[in-house]
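Hey, resending since the last one bounced:
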Amino acid sequence: MADQSDALRLLLGATSVALRHPKLWVTGVFAGARMARSRWWQRSPFLPVPAEEFLHFRMVTMYGGDGSAAVDQRADDIVAWLQWCRTWRAVKS
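The structure tokens again:
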């Protein structure tokens, strides 16, 4: 199962990927806020990271097996997902 360090690594990786794509910044902030665990400010590491169970579920449904994937594959997937989120929000409006 994913632990809090996995969530923190994913947050840092997603942030570094999103920084290279300014058009995705706002989308990334909203997506991150939706995934953050409830009352994240009350528990260490005091960052808006997803709950361990949620992160594990998402990784398994995305990559199958135990949910592991190469870091560069995750980076590409994060960009593709944020682009999809941005497009989806534009279509909904």
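The chain has one domain: 4-92.

Sorry for the duplicate.
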